[in-house]
Write a structure and sequence with these properties.
Layout (H helix, E strand, L loop, with lengths): L1 E3 L2 E16 L8 E2 L4 H6 L16 H6 L5 E5 L10 E17 L4 E14 L7 H7 L13 E11 L6 E13 L5 H9 L6 E4 L13 E2 L2 E2 L4 H12 L7 E2 L7 E13 L10 E13 L2 E5 L2 E3 L16 E3 L10 E4 L4 E3 L14 E5 L3 E15 L8 E12 L1 E2 L8 H6 L12 E2 L6 E14 L2 E12 L3 E7 L17 E2 L14 H12 L10 E2 L5 E2 L3 E13 L10 E9 L1 H5 L7 E2 L5 E10 L5 E6 L3 H4 L2 E2 L1 H4 L2 E9 L1
Parallel strand pairs: 12-20, 27-34
Antiparallel strand pairs: 1-2, 2-5, 3-4, 4-9, 5-6, 6-7, 7-8, 8-13, 10-11, 13-14, 14-21, 15-20, 16-17, 18-19, 21-22, 22-25, 23-24, 25-26, 26-31, 27-30, 28-29, 31-32, 32-37, 33-36, 34-35
Length: 639
Amino acid sequence: MLDAGRHQLKFGAELNRASLNNLYVFNATGTLVFSNVDDLRNGIISAGTDPNGNTSTLPGNVISGVTAGAFASYTPTGDVTTAAAAFKRDIWSIFLQDEFAASDVLTLTGGVRVDWYDTNKHPGLNPNFVERYGFPNTTSFSNLDPVVMPRLAATYDLNDFSVFSRAQLRAGVGVFSGGDPLVWFGNAYQNNGAAYGQTTSVDPACAGEDLSVLDGGQFTGIPQCVLDSAAAQGADGLGDTQSIDPDLKMPTVIRANLGFAADIDFAPSGLFSGWHLNADYIYSRYRNPLSVVDLSQTVRESRGLNGYTIDGRPIYAAIDPTAPGCDAVLVDAASVEWSGVTSACFSTRRDDEIMLTNAGAYSSQIASFILSRHSEGGLFTSGGSVDFSLGYAYTDSHDRRNMYNSTATSNYDYVAAFDRQNPDVSRGFYGSRHNISVSTSFKEVFFDDLATRLNVSFVASSGRPYSLTFTGGGVFNDSSSGNDNALLYIPSGIDDPNIAPTSDAEAVAALYDFTQGLGCAKKYAGSTIARNTCENDWYFDVDLSFSQELPGPGRFFGRDDKFKLYAMFDNFLNFVDKDWNISRRRQFAGFQDMANLGGIDSEGRYIITGFNATGFEGDNEIKTTASVWRLKVGISYDF
């Protein structure tokens, strides 16, 4: 720090180094599937009727025999530790800040921070990946451009006016970057297509093999042909390959804030004096947020209406440009734009070629205030005090994907979408729109300097959002792209022209009737509902705490020590009545599946085959950790 009179200069540098050794191999121990109980007893795994090696374990697929009987991931050497992502990541930072006292009442602060990235190792090059997509899979931290983050802030002390005193205005604008994508980058290291392979018992290597996993009554494990095929796939570099966009940019946020703080005195003394107000507004524009795409998926024009539903939803399928007779070329990786795609390109089992990339920008805003008061003197003793605060925050946040998973495939699958390759901006998955808090604390001193305290806090939060979806998967993307994650088309009635005439009329009518009675869905009749339109229930919480200080033994020897007996009561309302303050939330990724979809007909119309009549109420599950009451009693000793 440099003191230059009215200028206070700060500058510095920082190095943040992380060493990662992350070992995660999906299905490394393998999975066995049996179509029925008798087959389980006899050790006969499912034959798997899908020639592409379907691994979906939805009950319908298992019982019908569609799902492959065995599937596993296996390394070429048989040693799973060779598939670990092991590398170092460095973030180098320099910053410069000038705090300028422009006047007695105005302070300006300007500065800039620059971050740049480096690594000691890149993902292993997979020549097959280069042949398929035309660029290497070796992008990592050292390929990123530096991030320049200028910032400016001001504080202005206002003269006292009306009931306000010591008032201050705060404002600022700047560029920020945060959140470390270390684990997401790690996916490209351990999923480079050569670290391990993933195959099923439907693989040609298992043709004619005995599908029994019992030998003389002894369990034999995953069929050896599956393991050998997976090992060979990895050795040849033909496993699913995850990558990082060569043009990836680190996400940044342009954030502007405006704040006001002041003491408030409605009267010279008493209850209506001594209040304090803090009010803030924050606007954020998220640029280049991280997202994922599947390089292997493109629109299949032979499905639906030239590859789309009648309302414009794309119908994707996986391709392999190296398949015999396929001359497809990837024109743009970030948007997954292909040219020259023919039917021969779809003759593949390839899928989950997930690439970390950037998505389009979106905005969020938060407005909040806190009104608080501290008064000396308790309700019963002059040495006590009373504290009170009331707060409210309104959040209008947006995003495109949930992006809360560590693996690339889960980040791709676990978002409700109209277009899975390019989800629209919608209400943010994490946002609770309304948050109210009230807190009060009472302190009394009945004995010498030994305090008695009672704290009561109340919180009310509106529910996080969720999405209405179709049940199952495999219609708009390949079968490995998750289930229950396609946004629901809501019919305008049984005669909706976008509903195929081969649909189950009763199911269509039931879906229409139900959604007309659901406030969040009613206005979307005749269209696909937007993501995160519906909202979980409000949550109310009251917590109590009580403590009493007692003299410690050291006071006999002139020491100032204390015991403190305390009790903390979480979720007091649920203690009063077991049906009060129950936190409910639907599926963890925010999916509420409502109707079965049999497919899309040749005119792009939805074929609805069933309505999930009981699921809506049944899926509104209790979240135990937030719903139970807890009492903690203890003692502490301060000396």
